[in-house]
Design goal:
- By secondary structure, the chain is an alpha+beta fold.
- The protein has a single domain, classed as 2-Layer Sandwich (STM4215-like).
- Helices cover 19% and strands 41% of the residues.
- Strands 1, 2, 3, 4, 5, 6 and 7 form a 7-stranded mixed β-sheet that branches.
């Protein structure tokens, strides 16, 4: 059984009907939001049956021609994610919560787009696969 958290997180973001389409992994060639895991994370507690309480790092990146709109979108995510309930479709995890680990920040810009990001920590109980 594969951990389906990033898929459920993507579905949650899409349900918010933000002004940008969301993708798992990387930004589109046009304005978009990307959701992807970050390195790190840690196991808070491991049990003999393979169950583990984990803290996993994820990031939301946004690519937009309008800087204020991008920041407002990430602010909205930062506001709603801590109250979200993101349930596994395949039973691979139990959701414990999401903590915002950074305020939205400017990661770069080019001649066409602004790039901003928001980092979060998901607390999950995962089950042996």
């Amino acid at each position: 059984m594969t951990l389906d958290f990033v898929d459920r997180l993507h579905e949650f973001v899409e349900s918010l009907e933000l002004d940008y389409p969301a993708h798992i992994g990387s930004l589109d060639t046009k304005e978009s939001i990307a959701i992807y895991p970050l390195p790190g994370g840690k196991i808070k507690q491991q049990f003999f049956d393979g169950t583990a309480d984990r803290l996993l790092n994820y990031e939301f990146a946004i690519k937009s021609k309008k800087q204020r709109k991008a920041i407002a979108t990430l602010d909205k995510l930062a506001e709603v994610l801590p109250d979200a309930e993101i349930v596994s479709a395949n039973g691979s995890y139990d959701f414990r919560g999401i903590e915002i680990s950074s305020e939205p920040f400017n990661s770069e810009m080019d001649e066409h787009y602004f790039y901003h990001a928001l980092s979060v920590i998901a607390e999950l109980t995962t089950y042996k696969q």
